[in-house]
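Model it.
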Amino acid sequence: MKEFHLPCRIPKIPTTTNKTIRFPNEIIAQVEKAIFGTGCSFTAFVVEATRVALESLKEQQESHQ
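Modeled.
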């Protein structure tokens, strides 16, 4: 499984879509604390965390086949 690392920025992606999502305030505070002073944006953190989660799910599905 891919290990999570704080991204410095989101890689250039030709197309993106704006999505409005709600986070519990506690999670927002934890993410902001984790990225404070790193140069990592909230969006970059969420995109990378989602990529790692999706890879983990894919590996779990493949191991159950």
